[in-house]
Amino acid sequence: MSEIQDAAQIIKVSFEGAEIILKMGNTGWQFVKDICAVFKKVLDQEKLSGKTSVQKLLKMGGDLQVFRFETKDLERVKALANKYGILYSILPDLNEKDGMSEILFHSQAAPRIQSMMAKIEHSNIGTLDEYYENAEPDKVEQLVEEVKKPALPEPKECELVARELAKNQVEKISNVRSRLNMTWLQIWPIICYMEEQGILEKGKEGTVTLTRTPEQVEELVDSQQWKQLFGEEEAKRRSTGSSQETEEKMQVIRRIQKEKRNNPGVNAITIDQKLVYEETEHHIKTRIPYRKNEFIWLDKSEISWINDHKTIFAGLEKKKEYAILDLEDRFLRKTSGEDLYRESYDPVHRERARQEQEKIRRRREQNYRKAQQNLEAGRRTIQGQRR
Asked: Where is the composition biased (Basic and acidic residues) (predicted)?
């Protein structure tokens, strides 16, 4: 009977387009609603810092677990998690009195988390419902109230989007994102906020239509009314730092791309987003193209996202030795950046390899047809002799 009850308490929750397995505790559906608020809080925090750990954990779906440890060991836990290549996200501290902290991870990483437990005293692996049951009720209530408040977009980013939209009466959001080199998570809240203010209307197939002429939008952006949409003091405070930071970030990305293209010791490469398998705070794990179970880790400081955040732009140092690992991060071999580029990323070499594979395929087909013809001819000869 207990097994049936346990099974009934395990549910799948759809959140941010992903299915998560949750085991309801004694609080039932209240736990589900509150834990989704926790996810939303972490997502909002990571958006501000440019991280995507919890987003990727949610996309993986399935069973998510909690690693609990003493707060004083937080930096050590982060260092070990990065060392073992564990994708994790720091959970809000909902019980500051117990002196413990928690990180969220996928159950697939449990063996590596257990290796960390051997080095971190007073640590253990738990579930989300245990994390929730240990929380202070007022802390949970405070977090839920914070999540309910809509996040105010950055004024300068809104201005950039508005001026870009003013170029056309009807525009695709994806085109604006591409021209401004913004991610979906950055631009979507701005589009929604502008719709609330009556500046535009969202349409079908990802389009937006301005509710006024492009000239009127330009005038609005330059007016006092625009500042009042955000609150004048808030607009001044936020725009002074954030716009400068955004522009500086874009300049760094452009500089890195230019250096990689012009550096004779580096081969510039692009990696499709679909090849990204894991991410930590400082590194990203990608599968090597045309290799079923071969992966490399790249330093985040040496990559930049392009093409609507669908492609990674990076560089392979020709003389550097890269460790090739399998999906479980087991070492397979080492190879130079030059060989790695030539074998897997060089478009000319790939085209030659494709042509060579095509020749082999055609040759095999021809040999197969000849063998079939010879076999058929042999059968006819045998049948003729019998007659």
From this structure: 350-359
Phi, psi of 294 (to 5 degrees): -130, 130
DSSP 229-286: HH-HHHHHHHHHHHHHHHHHHHHHHHHHHHHHHH-TTEEEEEEEGGGEEEE-SSEEEE
d(CA 278, CA 287): 10
Q: What are phi and psi of 212, to 5 degrees?
A: -140, 175
From 151, 35, 50, 48, select the one nearest 104 (Cα to Cα).
35
> C-alpha angle with apex 31: 25 to 35, nearest 5 degrees?
125
Encode pLDDT of 308-350 as tens digits: 667 788 888 889 999 999 988 899 999 999 999 888 887 666 6
The helix (run of H) or strand (run of E) holding residue 94 is none
- Which of helix, strand or coil describes residue 329? coil
First to last CA, the chain: 75
Contacts of 236 (CB under 8 A, 6+ apart): 227
Task: Tell me what pLDDT residue 45 has.
Answer: 66
Which has the minimum average pLDDT: 111-120, 178-187, 224-233, 248-257? 248-257
Judge contact between 281 and 86, C-beta under 8 A.
no
Give strand pairing partners of 312: 271, 305
pTM of the full predicted structure?
A: 0.40
Q: Nearest Cα to 34, choosing from 102, 150, 178, 131?
A: 131
pLDDT band at residue 112 under the 50/70/90 scheme: very high
Determine phi and psi for 79, rounding to 5 degrees: -65, -45
**Under 8 Å CB-to-CB from 40, ≥6 apart: which residues?**
147
